Amino acid sequence: MLTTLHPSSSTTQTTTTMGVPQYPVSTFRASAKPSANGIPRTFGQVVEALVRVLVALITTPANIVTWLLFCPPIPLKLFLLSRIVKYSRSLTPYLLARESKKEASHKPARPVVPFGDIEKTVSTTNVTVPAAKRQPSAPPQIQPTEAYGFILTPNGSKGKGADKAQPGEKIIIYFHGGAYVVGHPLWTPFALQLARDARVRVYAAQYRKAVDATSAWPAQLQDGLAAWEHVTGELGFEPHNVIIAGESAGGHLSLAVSTQLGQWDAPGPGGLALCSPWVDVTRSFTPPAASWIDYLEPFWSRYHIPSLVRYLTAEGERSLLVSPALAEAGAFDHLAKGKTSVFVSVGTAETIAPEIYALITRLKGDTVKTAVFEDENGLHIAPAFALFQASPKQYTKFAAGVKGLVRDIDAANKQRAKEAAPSA
């Protein structure tokens, strides 16, 4: 259900579905709040690389001593990498990546994590899709536009490339992480690994980075819905045969797309796979003591969050689509009603672990079928590790969770067929 947007008004006017407050009119401001704008991605990568080299040279001896004295529960190499990323990010928090059209629509020339030989078993098809026909509420400054994606086809999958869906075929829509200001669907081999191991096509969706007043929230939701419409419309996949997956900000977008569909009373996905989902932009939760080993830099949030929420009021920042960790009872009834299964992975040493646990509690409270992989002493997005090579154990656990969603979809489809069959 959509409300009418009056950008010049701050009056609260909220509609309700199933007793749950929906996107209120007062979600958006008339004009953008001041925030840092992005710089060209290539230039930002060069600056960040230089800073990381300097940080590594200066801090590594002290970090080795710290590891020896305090014995953190992670290997020395991972600890050093985590420190380098955290310290360098604290020195360059303003590096928000402005992508060119070519950078957004093509595979990165130098992925953050090398692909190895996985492309021998997974092919890539570049696609450009139109804006979604049905749009979420948005300020007039945020206009829908065409979006880019990459269809990943593993050997042995039912369908190929951009072909129409085969009967009963399943697909994963994947959204990458990066705090909505950096990243790319193919900056790591994570999406290709999911395609290979789940043996289904993956639509790795690109979305606009929130780097200026024309690309703040909900531009990312607009692009996410464009991916959904392309997969369920142009490609012909049945909604209940779609899994939406993502890590960090991509997990947030996965949940936002499914929530928007639920608010429209539209069919939603059969499964959600959320890897360390970022689910609270208000910073209402205190990081756990164990998070001192995590690489997330809280100071960075003073730049990337304001860049994302330029048009959001305080009420808008706390709304279900934006901060689902703060959701009230009944917020996810649409998932339970639609038989959507959810798989969540969370590291106990993550800076944002408390908000993820709050989301899990709410999902289970709303009787959503929810499976959890709790990674003891795990860092942020450990199964995907956009900054480090994935741990085999952590990735394997996440891949197993995705395969579990496929089994849940099969079981739900059988139940739907049974319910639809005429009684004897």
UniProtKB/TrEMBL annotation:
Name the UniProt record assigns to this protein: Esterase
All copies of domain Alpha/beta hydrolase fold-3, residue ranges: 172-380
Region (Disordered): 1-20
One Pfam short name: Abhydrolase_3
Keyword terms of this UniProt record: Hydrolase
InterPro entries (alphabetical): AB_hydrolase_3 (IPR013094), AB_hydrolase_fold (IPR029058), GDXG_lipolytic_enzyme (IPR050300)
Organism from which the protein derives: Vanrija pseudolonga
UniProt gene name: est_1
Gene Ontology terms, MF aspect: hydrolase activity
Composition-biased stretches (Low complexity): 1-17
